[in-house]
Each structure stands twice: as structure tokens, then as C-alpha cells.
Amino acid sequence: MNEVTRVEMAEFKIVHNPDTLVTSALGSCIGVALYDPELKIGGLAHIMLPDSSMARERSNPAKFADTAIEAMVEGLIKRGAECSRMEAKLAGGACMFSFAGKSPLMDIGEKNVAAARLILRGKGIRIVAEDTGKNYGRCAEFCCSTGKLKVKSLTRGDKEL
Amino acid sequence: MDIRELSPLQLDALKEVANIGAGHAATALSQLVHKKILIRSPRLGLLPVDEASQMLEDPEALVIGIYLVVRGDLSANVVLIFPHDDALALASMLLGKQPQSHEFPSPLDESALKEVGSIVTCAYLNALSQLIHISLIPSVPGLASDMSGAVIDRVLIELGQMEDYVLIIETELIDVSQKVMGYFMFLPHPSSIETILKAVGVAKM
Q1: Which residues of chain B carry a pLDDT beneath 70?
Q2: pLDDT of A102
Q3: Interchain contact B150–A (C-beta under 8 A)
Q4: Of A45, A154, A157, B17, which has the fewest CB atoms closer than 10 Å, so is most exposed?
């Protein structure tokens, strides 16, 4: 039975073939999908912020790129996956509003993307595809039988990574 | 201050302040569109940042969001959310043209809608300023036309960098037939909630 599991904001989930993970409405947030093609297991995280070290409250690791990816990788390894086989796909990290006067906060989406790339590289995980940045929201559907990440948007059509 | 510890009296006070602000905002919008606009009693959401988008009915609905940052004696974020078609109708009305059904707002539509956001927000903030004698300065408005969840997450992230909980004060703008025209959301920073409570005399927990 192919089950569809929802991943809410600041959450990550891990499932096996043939299940599917979906997350909706990624704006500045970033979706990180990890897949071990040999075991056909995968995880999807809906991450809000790049770095946990800046926050006062760190009770939820899935909120931050550093701690969310760490926890998701650990979860996958526990189920037998290996970093060397893992493939990463990224979606989201848009800059939703453009202002005349830019504040340093404006590029939070960009920071999320940069943080995710850096952390994955540090773990030796390859990023095989991404649909990030620009100024529109995305929904992501991650199929653990194929490892395909379907990225949908309301304004720019759909893509398959 | 920990906003999770706000008392019922304090929450009521915040609601009342929001009600007065939203009343002025609705009047400003009425004058713009020459139509009677009413408000529903504000809804207060005190939620973990990562659950706050659940205030939205449908996070994948196509909306137009206008976002302003408030500085001065308070730090807050303001977001106006209009269903996409209603926003385009609103823009057409202001620009004196026939409403068109096209997928994206034109640059002129966007500009008109940002102006609406500015005027309505200023009316809300002015009412607050006069009520509690503080000075508030809104930023220029930003606009996004996209799914509502993606529009709001940018705003929540800004608050979520420091805090785990966020207070959303939401007022529905409705017309005489009770149809929702849009949502006005006021998201004060926790330190500013204290400022408001002090000004209305209910700062003590």
C-alpha cells in the first residue's frame, strides 16, 4: 500500500518504499529530501531557519537546517542507509517579498539554501538536483519507490527532480 | 516576557486594542472602494511558530499578501491577505478598469494593492498610536502573489528566529453580505506586547 505522509513546517519524516512524503507551501522555508536508492528509504524535512546557534529556543531540531539534517541523517543511518549512497534534493528557499529597502533579513530563503548545501557537503552527501530561490512558493512530493521529487508551484508550473 | 503566560484579561485587552485598530482600517478601506466594509471580532492565536500557519484555512490557496514591518515604539509585522480574485477585483476598482481574469496581477495592479496595504495599515497604526500614545512607523509594503502558506512563512520565520511562540491577532474584513474581503494580521514582537499592555494598564501578570 502506498501511503502518503504529510510533513508539516519544522518537521521531518522518514519512510520506506513505496510510500510518499508531501510537504506544502514552502516559501522561504526549504525542503530537503534524502534518499538511499539501494534500500529505497527516504526522508523529507521542512526547515524554517539556517542555524540553531542563533535561537534562544532549540527544543525542536527539525526547525533548523543544521540540526534537522543531522537528525534526519541519523534516522536514515539507523535504518541501514549510508551517507555515501545518499542523494539529496532541495526545493524552496524563495525570497517571497521584494522591498525597495533591503534588510539583512530579506534573504532568509537564500541563507536556508546555503546552509543546507554546506551541511550536506560536510557529510559527504551529494546534492543531485535542486529547485531553489527565485520568488515563488513550492509544494514538494517525494516518492520513495523512485526517489523522484515532484516540485509544484501555483505560478510557475511543476517540475520533477 | 513569556507570551505563553498572558492572562485572559491581558488577551482581552490586546483584542480590544486590535478591534479599535481594525475598525479604523475597515473605514479606510471603505473610503477607498466606496463600499461598506465591516470587521469581525479579532481572533487571537497564541501558537508555536511552526504551527502558526495552521491559522490559514488552506495553505495552498492562491492569495495576494501585502507585508509591512512596523518600527518605532513597537516592533511588529503586518500582513494583509486577500483571496487572489478579490485582490484583482479590488485593484481594478481602484484603477477604474474592468475586472479582468488573468493569472497574475500586472505591475500596476501590484502597485495599487501595495497602496491599499499601506493606507489600511496606516489607519490601523494611527488608531493604535492615538489610543496608547506611541509613535509607529510602517515600512514600504512588499507584495507576494502565491500560496498563502508560502506567503506567511517568511513572516513567521522573522519572528521564529528568536522565539518559539508567536501571537497573531487576525481580523476579518467583510462586506455587508458577510463575504470575506481579506484578513488583516498583526504580529507584535513579544517585547512590544509588553509595551501595549503597559500603555493600557494591564502589564502586571
Answers
A1: 101-102, 204-205
A2: 55
A3: yes
A4: A157
